[in-house]
Amino acid sequence: MQYFLSHAPNKDASIWHQSPIGAVENISPNETAYFHRKAIIAQEYITSWKCDDEENRNIRWVKGLRENLDPYTLGDYVNWPDIDIKNWQTSYYGSNFHRLRKVKIMYDPCDVFHFQQSIPPFHT
């Protein structure tokens, strides 16, 4: 992380750390939608730019950071969506994804609340 921060594309690039340890661990990963109850740390990679010609450099920085840390990552936090996350269903929701698709069909069968990585309804 130190390497990536020292090679950041600009002064606004950062890695935000959050420690979810505590009461969040007292609930089973399958009791709610949030699966990563035993996570030690959650990280968000942040960058921004003002000019169009800075876009590629900033995006490459985040992608490089993600690729290098991926072997040490057990999942991703759904409230920090990233369209480049592969297998986002498992990465965000772990083993809860199948159950959450059933919940989706009960409360949003027409998929009104839809975005690129939203849980699709489970049609039997």
Number of strands: 2
Largest sheet: 2 strands, antiparallel
How many alpha or pi helices?
Answer: 4
Multimeric state of these chains? single chain
Percent range of helical residues: 25-40%
Please state the average pLDDT score: 93
Strand content: 5-15%
Distance between the termini: 45 Å
Q: Flag low-confidence runs.
A: none
Radius of gyration: 17 Å
The main sheet orders its strands as 1-2
Domain Berberine/berberine-like: 76-120
Pfam family, one: BBE
GO molecular function: flavin adenine dinucleotide binding; oxidoreductase activity
Protein name: Berberine/berberine-like domain-containing protein
Structure characterization notes:
There is one protein chain. This protein is α+β, with helices and mostly antiparallel strands and 124 residues long. Helix content is 30%, strand content 8%. It has helices at 2-6, 55-69, 88-93, 97-107, and strands spanning 14-18, 42-46. It has a two-stranded antiparallel ribbon. The radius of gyration is 17 Å and the shape is globular. The termini are far apart. The mean pLDDT is 93. This is Berberine/berberine-like domain-containing protein. InterPro entries: BBE, FAD-bd_PCMH_sub2.
Keywords summarizing the entry:
124 residues; alpha+beta; 30% helix; globular; oxidoreductase activity; flavin adenine dinucleotide binding; FAD-bd_PCMH_sub2; BBE; Berberine/berberine-like domain-containing protein
